Amino acid sequence: MSRIAQAVAFDASWLEPAPALVRDWTLAVADFPNFEYSMHEVRHAGDVIAGSNLLGSDVFQAFKVANNWREAHAYPMRSVRHQMIAYMRLLDIPGVTGARLKRMQAIRRKLRRMGLHLNQLQDLGGCRAIVPQLSDAANGLHPVPKTPS
After folding, report:
1. How far apart are CA 97 and CA 23, in angstroms?
2. 11, part of any domain
3. For the chain, which residues score pLDDT lower than 70?
4. Which residues of 51-83 are buried (b: 16+ CB within 10 A; e: fewer)?
5. Strands 125-130 and 96-101, sheet pairing
6. pLDDT tens, 2-26?
7. Residue 90 contacts residue 19 (beta carbons within 8 Å)
C-alpha cells in the first residue's frame, strides 16, 4: 500500500481550457445557481451572519444572500476539479479528487475570527487531489506542454 502524499496547495492559475474528455462531463453554467444580489448586499449579509445576535428581522434575508453567494462558487470549483482530473489522467497520475463548498457554520466562524467581509473570503470552495506519492502531486502542479495539432 502506498503512502498518501502530504497536502499540497493546488495553484490552478496556469490551467488552460479543459480538454474534450472533461468538457463532456461538465454541466453548463446555467445548471448552477446564479448570483442574484449586489456586493453591498453580500457585505451586509456577512456582517449580519457574523454577528452574535441572530434574532433581527433581516437575518433570514442575510442567510438567503449568503447561501446564494456560497452556492455561486459551485461552478468554478467543479470546473477546477474536472481540470485536475483531466490533467491527472493525461499525466497518468493515479489518485482521487474531491471538492466541496465551505459550510455556513465555518463561514460564520471565519468571518467572526478574521473580521473580514463575506465577499473577501477566498476559500468558499476547495478542491483536493490525493495521490500515492508526493512527486505525483508535484508533477501535477506543473503546466502540461501543448501538444502540436
Report:
1. 17
2. no
3. 1-33, 140-149
4. eeeeeeeeeeebbebbbbbbbbbbbebbbbbbb
5. antiparallel
6. 333 333 344 444 445 545 544 455 5
7. yes
Specify whether the CB–CB gap between 141 and 11 falls below 8 A: yes
Full domain range(s) for residue 90: 20-140
Q: Are 144 and 91 in contact (CB under 8 A)?
A: yes
What's the domain count of the chain?
A: 1
Is 8 part of a structural domain of the chain?
A: no
- What gap in Å lies between CA 10 and CA 126, rounded to an integer? 10
Cβ atoms of 18 and 53 within 8 Å: the answer is: no
10 is a domain residue: no
At CA 29, angle to CA 25 and CA 35, rounded to 5?
Answer: 145
* pTM of the entire predicted model: 0.67
Q: Tell whether 132 is covered by a domain.
A: yes
